[in-house]
């Protein structure tokens, strides 16, 4: 189901005067800085970040889940919700599926996605939960399990994800495992890493030529003492060991507090191993909060690195941008729209950095002015650029207002029964 085009047109007409005035004022300001607003708007319009299919349902904590009304019942409802996010923001042209959560006939999925103007981004494999019909338990790990039959089952699952992805037109597989240990001495850390590498090599061998494989690191959880792919160093070792189709995926929430993530981004990219992102925000751990809600400056600093690297490496540098969030107290569609716009905002602001001036300040060791150069770009309100980029493509001036005006959630709730019960669980 889509939101009526008339409603978006009406919304955009009502805001047209304000949008034009703000755009012209910003154009004048940027002109003084020698920046052409039209080309910036065109770049903003080309920007896209993938929606995680699992993000459109209400998340939860270990303690409870409080489902909202009109929750998606299955992957087809999830696609509908992703279609609305794309329709209103025009910044989320693809969906990242998680298997087996989103298992369904690929040709039907493909048909529905294309009718909604959506494509498929990276596939995600799930070997961190047991499925009802599965022979071997992942309680003590999957790709790194001590038991070969369990490892083989996990390898097969990953290969199946590739097969489904091929049928959907996806071109990447993201592998995140919860493997690790909860007690010192529980596992032999070296041998466990060897087993993981060996299994990943078998998955890698099944990748089609034009596919990529992303290894996603995370410091802890569900394993609380040691985790097999715990940091960007381990992830880099894996990607290097596997070969050119393998690279690292940086989930912003998967680091210790205060870690300099933008520096990790710079390092990985410099050695050709930055594959993609899971954008979200966090205050304490892997909180999966909406992108840019806690530390928008850090998001900007990540994009500052990305824009800089793109200028050096050109179009060949194309990391995959995805969101990965959990929504406990907000409508997931609203949160995902906000996050997509925040990520797009950080990208546009990073393009405003005066790189010649910055290079000169760096050469002079003028720390204060170098920092001010970044701050000036970060402080610029680029809303008019984002609004125009959206409206030019048929999206909404203000996606949240248009979504609320549409009553989408109440309408779909008529077909989607209220989920009762509040069991815990992270997804
Ligand atoms: C793990 O916490 C993670 O970030 C991985 O990307 C998973 O696939 C995703 O969350 C879904 O729960
Ligand atoms: Mn993630």
How many DSSP E strands?
12
Give the averaged pLDDT, no decimals.
96
Strand content: 5-15%
Count of all domains? 1
CATH architecture annotation name: Alpha-Beta Barrel
- Helix content percent band: 40-55%
Helix/strand order: HHHEHEEHEEHEEHEEHEHEHEHHHHHH
Largest beta sheet: what is the strand line-up?
A: 3-5-6-8-10-11-12
Spans with pLDDT under 50 lasting ≥5 residues?
none
By DSSP (H or I, 4+ residues per run), the number of helices equals: 16
Say which CATH homologous superfamily is assigned: Divalent-metal-dependent TIM barrel enzymes
Structural class: alpha/beta
**What separation lies between the terminal Cα atoms?**
24 Å
Shape: globular
Radius of gyration: 22 Å
Q: Briefly, what CATH class?
A: Alpha Beta
